[in-house]
Amino acid sequence: MPIISFASSKGGAGKTTSAIILATELAQGTDVTLIDADPAARLSRWSKLSELPDRINVITSEGERAIQDEISQAAARTTFVLIDLEGSASRLTSFAISESDLVIVPTGDEQQDADEAIETLAQIAMESRARRREIPSAVLFARTNAAVKSKLEKHINAELRAATRVFETELHRRTAFSSLHNAGGGLRQLDPSEVNGIDKAIVNAQAFAAEVVDILEETRHASVA
Ligand SMILES: Nc1ncnc2c1ncn2[C@@H]1O[C@H](COP(=O)(O)OP(=O)(O)OP(=O)(O)O)[C@@H](O)[C@H]1O
Ligand SMILES: [Mg+2]
Description:
Layout: E1 3-6, H1 15-26, E2 32-37, H2 42-47, E3 56-60, H3 67-77, E4 80-85, H4 91-99, E5 102-107, H5 111-131, E6 137-144, H6 151-163, E7 171-172, H7 175-183, H8 198-224
Parallel strand pairs: 1-4, 1-5, 2-3, 2-4, 5-6, 6-7
Helix pairs in contact: 1-7, 1-8
The structure holds adenosine-5'-triphosphate and magnesium ion.
Organism: Palleronia caenipelagi
Protein name: ParA family protein
């Protein structure tokens, strides 16, 4: 069953938030395990803030010696396994990437973000070579403005699109997304009297989840062809 990692060598790129958004969206229809493989444990912290949505399990990884077993056990139990990684290269990161069916690389749309994303893609490519297996990856623009893009942002977007697969959907900078770290749970559990724009955030999250499923289908067909 699909194993999806969130990786970026840059801290604060949006890995944990994007993993929570995807997990809570997928869990509308199926069982999902989230593995917190970041020693900073922000995902585990989120999981304790309120009751978790049905069909979501959160595991705090015991570290590099345990991660492969944790992944295979989770994959045997649930339809999707999502792994939130730390913002730097490590053996743990490398093990998780090598087990993944898709590595999502969140990035902002400044030049430095794009450079970091390309660096992360290079790490994934190294892992692919070491394992003699193509590890599919895709860049996700996260924390971007929902408004019209500047010339520079367009340029950076085009640069990354020329270099690699990029999600059509961007996870825009939205209060509803950042609120998940305060409130816990998913977008549907947020209180509309306290958080603005929940509906738009849900539409954005649904588009992201649908695109993840499409990419998984596409790469699965490519690998059996
Ligand atoms: N789409 C978004 N909209 C609004 N805020 C966001 C979004 N994505 C991330 N954030 C905020 O940005 C901060 C960093 O995001 P997050 O923790 O997801 O990054 P990370 O890549 O997991 O960081 P680290 O490498 O430190 O683990 C958080 O405070 C989060 O609330
Ligand atoms: Mg994180």
